[in-house]
Model the fold of this input.
Amino acid sequence: MLYDLIKKAFFQFDPEQVHDFTLEKFSKNSWYLRQMIKGFESLPFHQVSSHQMTWRNPLGLAAGFDKNGVALDFLDYLGFGAIEVGTVTLKPQEGNPKPRIWRYPDVKALRNALGFPCLGSEVVLKNLKSYQGEATLGVNIGKNKETPNEKAAEEYGKLIEMFEEAADYLVVNISSPNTEGLRDLQEKKALENLLKVVSEKKQQTPTPIYLKISPDETLQSLEEIYKLTVAHGLQGIIATNTTKQHPYESGGYSGEPLYDLSREAWSHLLTWNKGNDNFDIIGVGGFSHKGQVDEFRRCGGKFFQVYTSFVYQGPGIFNLI
Done:
């Protein structure tokens, strides 16, 4: 397959440089890139729906791939059921020092320590307003690095107000391991304060709002997060972000090694959520072959996302559905 040849060449270079280069090409809807996916756009994917939203098929592209919404038309053409932009921050920021992405091809994994690099909410919003594709559009939001946790709820509130009309759904990201102190917002008292503000904003918009969580929580913490999220009227949880459980110095680990941790989270969440049709559990983290997706469906899951497996498999990732 053409993608395998391209990947072999690209993997000789810095991961972030390659990513930026390909996004630029994606944004131009290159004829050459269309040839890579020829035939996939006509596959008979099946629509999935909940009380909250509908995707044209169950496979979504997770946040982190197109952070600023620059290649939406191409990604929509590719065939994803949903495209999640971000993480978007209120103000522009560069993120953490480079290098900050590493590949591990032997285990089909990535490690990133990006730290929410973003052109800023105003630029991203402008990019989103021109989108007219069929894929459901999600916007993943996060606080700026310099914003103290005590003021994080206010910042998330502003971002919800900015993107509620441009997005089909919103995601409150408090689980990245690459912004110092961000995961502290998952602790019970801090989470209650945050969800109170999010809930107030939710009453003013029909746009579904989800919470993205870490795979590194204890079972007790996971259950507390679930109960609080339901109680505050959000529409669901995305499980999970990248993990800090790896032997390296920094960053979040994703790809095939993440699957077991992610599965542990979403399987419990789906069990607790059984019978609650007003709350979605979206699975993400390590999905790379159809057997894993079948397991997710058997547990009651409908929507799932990929990122790292898209990097390694390219358009072949659509074989998952």
Observations:
- The chain has one domain: 2-320.
- The mean pLDDT is 92.
- Residues 125 and 163 are 7 Å apart (CA to CA).
- The first strand starts at residue 48 and ends at 49.
